[in-house]
C-alpha cells in the first residue's frame, strides 16, 4: 500500500512514536509583537535546531526568512490562525494562510488555533475542519491548538472542557492536538486516555524553572506525546541550556505507545470498578472511547 504524503510527514514528525516531540512555537510575534530583535530571533532558531528541538512554529512569512541550515535540521510548522492583542475580541482567531500555499513555501505541517467557548467558536471550528480537508489534499499533517477560552466555558470544569477539546480535534480530522493540560496527573491521564490522536501540551506563560520542569515531567508521565513550549525556553536566561534540559526531561519521562494503551485500560477498569464516571457530566467511556 502506498502511504499518503500526509501520513509520511506525520510519521517523520513523530519519529515513529519512539521519542517525545518538542515543538517550540515562535509565532507570538504576530499576536503580541516582537519579543526580541531580529538577529537574536534568528540565533534562537539556530540554537533550537542544534540542541534538541524537533520543530518550530512560525507564520508563513518567517519561513522564507529562515536560515537554510536551520531548515535542514528542524521541521517547520506554519501557523495559519491569527489575531492581535489589540483586537476587540482577541479570542477570535481567523485564517491567514492555506495548506497549498504553505506547502509551496516549504512547510512540513500546518497549525490552527481554536478557542472553545468563544463568541466566534463556530467560525473557528469551521476553519479547522476546512483546513483538515485542505491538508489531506496537500499531504500535510495538521496540528490544532484548542484552548477552552471564552464565555461559553466559564462555568465548566477544566477536565470537561479539555477532554471536549481533544475530542473535537479527533472528530474533525486533526493529526496532533495541542491542549492546555494541567492539574493532577490522574486528570491529565484521563484526557490522554480519552483521545485517539497524539496530544502535546501547551507550555504556557513563563514560570520559574523548577515549576516548569516539574510540569514537563508530570505531563509526560501522564502519557502526553510531547510539549509545545516557547516562552519558557526562548525567554530563559540561557536558551541553549534550557532546550537541552527540556529535551532530557521529555526523554526521561516519556511514556511509550504500549504503556499509554495500558494506562487507558487501567483508567477504564478503575472507573468501572468504582461504578462512577470520568466526570460528573461526562458519559463513561470504554477503552476505545466509545460510549459504554
Can you walk through the features of this model?
By secondary structure, the protein is α/β, with parallel strands linked by helices. It has a single domain, classed as Alpha-Beta Barrel (TIM Barrel), CATH 3.20.20. It is built from 13 helices and 10 strands. The protein has helices spanning 5-14, 28-32, 38-50, 60-63, 68-73, 99-105, 121-138, 158-171, 185-194, 209-221, 231-234, 239-253, 257-274, and strands at residues 21-25, 55-58, 75-79, 81-82, 94-95, 109-116, 142-148, 176-179, 199-202, 226-228. It has an 8-stranded parallel barrel with strand order 1-2-3-6-7-8-9-10, surrounded by 7 helices. Strand 6 (109-116), helix 7 (121-138) and strand 7 (142-148) form a beta-alpha-beta unit. Helix 8 (158-171) packs parallel to helix 9, helix 9 (185-194) crosses helix 13 (257-274) and helix 10 (209-221) runs parallel beside helix 12 (239-253). It is globular and about 45 Å long. It starts with a helix and ends in an 18-residue tail after the last helix. The relative contact order is 0.13.
